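Q: Hi! First time doing this. I have a protein sequence and I read that you can turn it into a structure. Is that right? Here it is:
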Amino acid sequence: MLQKFGGKFPTTRIFSEYARSTLKDLNLQEDQDLVLMAWMEREEILFRTLERYMIAERLSKGFGGNEENMAVDVDSFIAFSLSVQNRRKSRVGLALENHLELLFVGCGLRYSRTAVTENKTKPGFLFPGIAEYRN
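A: Yes, that's right. Below is the predicted 3D structure, encoded as structure tokens:
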């Protein structure tokens, strides 16, 4: 993964595709729940593996500052920690949407993904689509 993604986090869509590509023996037509859970679990394992390496690398570099200016060190660490937590939260939701989208396509369902509705709201999916919603 380090080589494939150049030591950086790819977009969630690309990472979801990668995670699915590592599971070859799943049949979407037989058991959608099993397939969805397998995709999510695999992506979580792969993401945590990549994340663990990248976090360890960042931690080994430190967070700047010195004994006289510890605030820079602490503030940098807190900002880094928050970015890790925020990435985890947003990534898992987007990963679920990515996998659900492929499941919907595989099952022949019609939908719109993140279509804009009233008050600029963007639901994850609308069934059967935004045109029907607006009608």
